[in-house]
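Listing S7. Sequence submitted for prediction.
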Amino acid sequence: MEFKKFSSVDELMDDMMKPKPFYIEVWYNIRNFYDDWCPKSLYRKVDKLVRWYRWGFNPEDLWSLDYATAKFLLPRLKKFKETKHGSPSLLNDDESLQMAYEEEHGKLNFTKDEHGNMEYENLEKLWDFALQKMIDGFEESMNNDYHDDWDKHKKIIDDGLFYFSRYFTTLWD
C-alpha cells in the first residue's frame, strides 16, 4: 500500500475533503448506525464478520495463534493418517527416525530390496510413527493442563513440531 505524501497541511485538508468512494460511505453509515442504535455485542459480532470476510479468518485467532493453528491442523492430520496411500520415500534414508522408532517400539526388521530401499511395511510403520508424533504434539499444544510436568509437555510439543517441519513437504496424498 502506497501512502500519499503531502507538502503542506492545506494539501492534506483538500485531499481529505474529496468525495470518498461509495462503499466507504456506506460502511461508515452502517457503522455509525450500529454505534448509535445497536447493543455493543451485536456491533462486535457484525464487525467480526466483516473482518472475517475481509481477512479470511477469525480475528480472534490472533490472540492465541498457536492454539488456532493446532485446532486447524489436528483434525486434518488425523484424517490424513487414516486415509493415507503410501509413505514418502525419503524415510529410507532417515536414520534418526528409525532410531526414535526403535527407542519406543523396539527393533524393526530392516530388509531392503535390490535398490537399497526398505520394504513397504517398515516404511509404513515409520510414517505412522512420524504422523502420530505430529498428532501428539498438536494435541499436547492444545492441552492447558500441563502444570505438573512442564518438561514432558514441552518435549511432546517439540517432537511433534520437529517431525511436522521435517516432513511438511511430504504431507500430500
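Caption to Listing S7: primary sequence and predicted C-alpha cells for the chain studied. The radius of gyration is 26 Å. The mean pLDDT is 84.
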